[in-house]
Amino acid sequence: MPIALDALVMWAKAQVLGKEPPACAEDCEQLPIPIAESDCGRYHLASCASYEIEDYEHRWINRRFPVSEAQMLGNEKLRRIQLSGGPCKSYRIPMETTWLVDDVMRWWCIGEPGEIRDLLGWVGYLGKRRAVGMGQVASWSVDPCEPWGDGFPVVRGSMPLRPLPVDTPGVGDDALQAMAVLRPPYWAHYKEEPCVVPM
Amino acid sequence: MERLRYEFVLESEAPIAHHEGTIGNMSMIMRRKMRNGSGWANVPIVTADAMRHGMREAAAYALLQAAGLLGGTKLSEAALRLLFSGGMVTGRGEASTIKLDQYRELCELVPSMALFGGCADNRVIPGRLTVQDALLVCEETIRYVPTWARNTVNDLCGIDTCRSHVEEVQRVRMDPTLQPQKRRLLSESSEVDVNKRLATSEQDSADDASVRDAKSTMMPRSMECVAQGSMFSWACEAIVNNDLERDTFHVAVGTFLSNPWVGGKRGTGHGKLRPVQARDVQVRAVEPASTALDVTALAGKVGDLFRAHVEERKDRIADFLGTVNA
C-alpha cells in the first residue's frame, strides 16, 4: 500500500508528544491529528501517496557477524562461530529501490494546513531503510487546493485513493478489493477487513 | 524533543576500497544510481550502512570503555551481536510479554540502543538515528551536495567528474615457492613435491588436468578504488529526547570521526577518511561561539554525561550483557 498521510501525521504527533515506540500494534494509541475524519468515523479524510515510478535500482543489504570483536572481546564460552548458519549467519539480501517521476509524491486531505505542516516537518524520511538515508524528504509543501467534487479527497474518478470500506459511495465496481486496515497503524494486520484499495 | 542534523565534508586520506562485488578477479567500487541534469549516473559512494556501523562500533567501544569491560574477554556472543550488530530476533522467550519498563531499562543500560535501535530479548526497538551515504563530491552529484559543502570542495580542490576519482589498481599475491631462497626453507619431502610441480609447469601442458595440477598459486587481481584526496559529503541526524541521548549521539559521531576507516583493504592502507569541515552542528550550548565544529574533539568534550551515566551503572551493564538474549 502507498504511504498514507494520516499515518505520517500520527507518527509525528507521537514524536511530539514523546510517546515511546510501541512494542506491537496493540500498544499504538489513536492520537488526535489535524485531519478530518469521515462521517462514519472509520477513517481519516486523507489519501495515500500518489506518484509514478520512473526507474528502479537494485541494491543489497549485507550483514556480517563482528568476528574481529568476538576474537578480542568474547568470553571463554565463545569458542565457535558458525557463519554459514544460525544466529551469526552472514547475509546479502537483494533490495529494489525506486525513483519517482519529478521526485514528487502527492497527498490530498481535509484538515488544518498549519498544524499539518508543523507535524510533517518532523518527517524527514519515508518508507523502509530510513536509518540508512533512503526515502529522504527534500521538502514538504502544504498548499490549499480546489476539491475535485464528490469523493474528495479519498475517491477520484470512482477509484479509491486510500483503503475505504466496501460500501463507500462513489467507488466504482471495478475498484480493487482486498483485506486492509482503515486507520493507522496500517501494519496492524489483525485489524484488516474487506476494503476497496488503491491500485 | 530535538532534531539534530550534522553535515560533513570528509576527505579520503587513503584510497577507499569499498566494493560492491567482483567480476572475475576485478573488484568493483560501490556505486549508487543517481539522477543528474542530463540523465542517470552511477556514482561512487560509501554506503550509509558502513558509516552507520562505524558509529555503532564507536558507541559500543565507548560504552565498554566507560563500563570497564574493554580490558578482558567478558562478552557473550549475544552481547557482541547486540552491541556491534544491533542484535536479532532469536525466537527464544515470549516477545509479547515484553513491557515498556524493560525497554526503558534497556535504553538506560545501553544508551545507544535508543538511538541506533536494535533487538534485545525478542523486542525490536526502532532507532531514531538516520545516516546518509557518504557521497562523492563530483559533477554528477553536485545537485545533491549542500551548497556550503560544494563551495568548500570547490575552494579546496575543484570539482571533477566521478570517473576521474576512480582509479584501477592491480595487486599480486606472490607464490613463495617460485623463489629459490624461500624453497630452501621447505622440508625435504615438500621440496621434492614443489620441485616436481615446478618442473611440470615448465613443460608444455598436454591437457587441462596437468595445467591445473601444476598451476602456480600466484594470484593477480585488480580493483577499483576512490582516489586519495577525494571529497565526500556526508550527513547524519537524530531525534533526541533528553541530554543523555544528545550526548550519546555526540559520542557516536565524535568517536567515529576521530579515526574513521571504511571499506576493505585496511591492512594495506586503504579506507582512511578525515573530517574537513562540519556544519549545522547543533552543539552551540557546548561551543556557543562557533558555528563550525572540531569533530575530532567532539567526543572528548561532550561525552562526560554519557561516561558518568555508564560508569554509575557498570555492574548492572555487566550483568545485563552477561544474560542478554539478542
What would your notes on this structure say?
The complex is a heterodimer of chains A (199) and B (326). Chain A folds into two domains: 5-51 and 104-197, no CATH class; 57-102, no CATH class. Helix content of chain A is 14%, strand content 19%. Chain A contains three helices and seven strands; from the N terminus they run αβαβαβββββ. Chain A has helices spanning 5-16, 67-73, 113-120, and strands at 53-63, 91-100, 155-156, 159-160, 164-165, 176-180, 193-197. In chain A, strand 3 and strand 4 form a beta hairpin. Chain A is elongated and about 70 Å long. Chain B is of the alpha+beta class and 326 residues long. Chain B contains twelve helices and 13 strands. Chain B has helices spanning 48-66, 77-85, 100-109, 111-116, 147-156, 180-183, 188-202, 208-213, 243-258, 298-302, 304-312, 314-323; strands at residues 2-12, 19-23, 26-29, 31-36, 39-46, 118-120, 123-125, 129-131, 134-136, 166-173, 219-226, 231-240, 273-279. In chain B, strands 1, 4, 5, 8, 9, 12 and 13 form a seven-stranded antiparallel sheet that branches. In chain B, strands 2-3-11-10 form a four-stranded mixed sheet, with no helix packed on it. In chain B, strands 6-7 form a two-stranded antiparallel sheet. In chain B, a hairpin with a 2-residue loop joins strand 2 and strand 3 (26-29). The longest helix of chain B is centred in the first third of the chain and has 19 residues, at 48-66. Chain B starts with a strand and ends with a helix. The model of chain B is unreliable at 283-290 (pLDDT under 50). Chain A binds chain B through residues 15-16, 18, 20-21, 23-24, 55, 57, 59-63, 65-66, 69-70, 72-78, 81, 87-88, 99, 103, 122, 124-125, 130-133, 136, and chain B through 1, 3, 20, 32-33, 35, 40, 47-49, 52, 57, 64, 69-70, 73-77, 80-81, 84-85, 88, 90, 95-96, 98-100, 103-104, 117, 123, 125-127, 129-133, 235, 237, 239, 241.
